Amino acid sequence: MQQGESRKPDLLCTLEAEGFLGSFYQGDRYVDKAVIFVGGSGETRNVVEARAAILSREGYSVLAVGYYLWKPLSKQTVAIPLDYVERAIDWLLQKCPVKITKIGMTGLSLGAAYTALCGAYFPQISCAVVVSGFDFVVEGCKNMVIRQHRSYFTLHGENIPYEPAEALSHLPATLKKWKKDPRYGSRAMNRFYYNECFRDRTDASRIKVENGNCDWLFLAPGYDDTWPSDQAVKRMIQVLREKQYPHRYECVIYEKGSHLLGMPEEALAAMGGGDIEKLRRMLGHFLTMEKKYPKECMEAREESYRKMLSFLHESLIGA
Prior knowledge:
36% of the residues lie in helices and 21% in strands. It is of the alpha/beta class and 319 residues long. The strands form 3 sheets. The chain has an 8-stranded mixed β-sheet, sandwiched between helices. Strands 5-10-11 form a 3-stranded mixed β-sheet. It is globular and about 55 Å long. It starts with 10 loop residues before the first strand and ends with a helix.
């Protein structure tokens, strides 16, 4: 398939038949090596599928999995089941029309946190690429502000341990504190929320990457408005060092990159509905690094994508 061509999934998985929503793209070179691909916060199904199809051109079998937002799944970031990936793993290993021998997983932003949790919980995952992720689970909320007293994520119907979002019970005071804090600009409200409102987070809510059975690659920008992934990846690497983690792990920080890493410009275009210039202007409005370093952010996207590809090849295929 040539660059720029869209590719339809070879097979669709449904909640009724397989217990998860998935779009499967069969590989043509490394057909037995599969990558579970999940989107970030707000990414619609068509965007996730477009990005998964681009990755499949590298020869891997790619399974795009919906975990929220895909119809008929919830639009809210509350009690998102890890079970979908657990079932996707079982399908790949037991029911996929082609024999799968190794499984990797990758996700951006919220999908990166989901990927990190799945890598920590499911030993069948051989490698995980966590792109601009966070290392703690917090309370899920409705419409971004209404507390639900449930975790962002669940497994088998039980809450994954999480930090309560007490700051949302005093929202006017929380917003006032954010506006007065000189360390956080107008684009960094989310960074303030995850850093300051969960400053006293406990180890119980930490994503235990050291429990994984996989190789880890963490990608992050030098400064992240969306949430402090730049700090989170350093904490995760430090834990792996201290625990003498037996598998490979690596972290790359792109000092002049933005939250949107690990994708070629073609994938960014898919996110923008084809109008990449309009999307770039919008990114500059919302993301500090995109405003300050647009050229460098573009280069960081490409470099981090190449890094992800080389990592997947080394972990799934061999150096």
